[in-house]
Every structure is written in structure tokens, then in C-alpha cells.
Write a structure and sequence with these properties.
mainly alpha
Length: 264
């Protein structure tokens, strides 16, 4: 099978997974590009970031018009994440003459982020069931430092996403579940997380593209497969319980992270 068809098939697979479960796009695409297609880690991260920014744009517009985005929280996160993304791109620029060392760092950080994302997915269900109790138990401390903690979490997410293309989804959601368990209902939580991820992935993607880290032909084929995959899967009647899909995806990410760590 020609490489172009394989990229379309990979995009279709990832898009279908997103359509069925709502999660896993970035976490799956980068390891697929590295492990199956042999892309360098830097190019895999850059290509996935542009891929993610493109696919999140329509979702953000939809959520924004439906007034489900909490823009104040998005602003707090962006206050940390966008400078974090800029600093990470600067690090890429300063170390561009040592691509081997950069790829080594990316692979190990990617492996760690995949395993953390898997754990984050497993934690989401627990936090959703006990979020009010957790909120009441830590109210004074969290309430006092909530804006600062939100900016700090944004900074960590900005660095992590720009370095590995992973983390804005599951880990960002876990952080928001803990910090804003009452303020954010489930639909507002998802909308706010996606709205924050969009400018972050755009800036990180542009930074990687300026460094030549984006495989644009592969990106086109991936989008050609992913868009129909999302549309078809999101309208199918086949649905597994969310707890099952989240657990299966989490375990898969932990295994893939371990595989990347061993390979690196």
C-alpha cells in the first residue's frame, strides 16, 4: 500500500477514535507517526500540532457560539501556556544544530506524557464522581490561589504540548476538574479545554513549522482521513460505556508510552 494511503488510513483511525470517544487525537497521532511511519520525533510533534490545531478550530467555533466556553479560565490558562510554548520554541531554535539530542529529549518526554495522560484519563472518572467532595475539602487553599495555580498549570501545559504535542486534553481536563468542579459542568469543561488548546496548538504548530518540523504532504493525507473519520464515528449508533472506552484508551497510552521509552 502506498504511503499516502497509509497516512489516510491512520488519519481515519485517529479521527474515528475521536468521534467515538471524544479524546485521544494528539495522544495517538504522534506515536503513530514515530513508531509506524518512522518520522523523527520533532517532525512528528510539529505535524501533529498543526493537525490538532486544524481539527480543533471548528469545534472551538461551535462551542464559542453556544456560549459554553468559560473565557476567563481560558485566559488564565493562556497567560501561562502561550509564554511556555514560546519558550519551548526558543529552546528548539537554540538547539536546532543538535537534532539527535533534541529527538532524544522529545522521545523520553513523549513517553512520560503518554503515560501521564493515560493515568489522567483513569483519574477523570474518579474526580468527576467525587469532585464536589474534593472541592469542599480543599476550598480555602484552592480558592485563594486558584488564579495563580491556573496560570502555573497553563505554563506546564504550554511546555508539555509544544515539546510533545500531548497533554492539553486529558491532563488539562483533570486540572480543571480539580480547580473548578462546580463552575464547569461536563460540556463547559470540554468546551473550555478545547478553546484553550486551539491558540496553544496554533502557536506551537507555527513555531515548529518555522523550524521545518512539519511534514505538510503527510499532514494533508492525515486530514483527508481524519475528517471523514470524525464525522462518521460521531454519528454512528455504536457506543461503548464511557468508562470502558476511557480505560481502554488509557491502558493503550501507557503501553505505547512504555514502548517509546524502551525504544528511546
Amino acid at each position: 500500500m502506498p504511503d499516502s494511503l497509509l497516512y489516510v488510513a491512520a488519519g481515519l483511525l485517529v479521527g474515528a477514535n475521536v468521534g467515538l470517544t471524544g479524546v485521544g487525537g494528539g495522544s495517538l497521532m504522534t506515536p503513530i507517526l514515530v513508531l509506524l511511519f518512522g518520522q523523527s520525533p520533532a517532525v512528528a510533534v510539529g505535524t501533529d500540532l498543526v493537525f490538532a490545531a486544524t481539527t480543533k478550530l471548528a469545534a472551538t467555533v461551535s462551542f464559542g457560539y453556544s456560549r459554553r466556553v468559560d473565557w476567563r479560565i481560558v485566559g488564565r490558562l493562556a497567560l501561562g501556556s502561550l509564554p511556555g510554548a514560546g519558550a519551548t520554541i526558543l529552546w528548539f531554535w537554540l538547539t536546532r544544530r543538535a537534532p539527535g539530542a533534541v529527538d532524544h529529549v522529545i522521545v523520553h518526554c513523549l513517553a512520560a506524557m503518554l503515560m501521564l495522560t493515560g493515568l489522567g484519563l483513569l483519574m477523570q472518572g474518579v474526580l468527576q464522581r467525587s469532585r464536589i467532595r474534593a472541592r469542599l475539602a480543599s476550598f480555602p487553599l484552592v480558592q485563594k490561589w486558584k488564579p495563580v495555580v491556573t496560570v502555573a498549570i497553563g505554563l506546564l501545559l504550554g511546555v508539555a504540548v509544544t515539546l510533545t504535542s500531548v497533554g492539553a486534553g486529558a491532563l488539562g481536563t483533570v486540572a480543571l476538574l480539580y480547580l473548578y468542579p462546580i463552575r464547569l459542568s461536563t460540556d463547559r469543561l470540554v468546551a473550555t479545554d478545547i478553546a484553550h488548546a486551539l491558540p496553544l496548538t496554533i502557536i506551537a504548530g507555527i513555531g515548529h513549522a518555522s523550524l521545518g518540523h512539519v511534514n505538510f504532504p503527510a499532514l494533508g493525507y492525515l486530514l483527508l482521513g481524519s475528517i471523514p473519520g470524525v464525522l462518521i464515528a460521531s454519528h454512528t449508533m455504536i457506543r461503548l460505556p464511557q468508562a470502558i472506552t476511557r480505560t481502554l484508551l488509557a491502558l493503550m497510552l501507557i503501553v505505547v508510552g512504555g514502548r517509546l521509552l524502551f525504544a528511546g
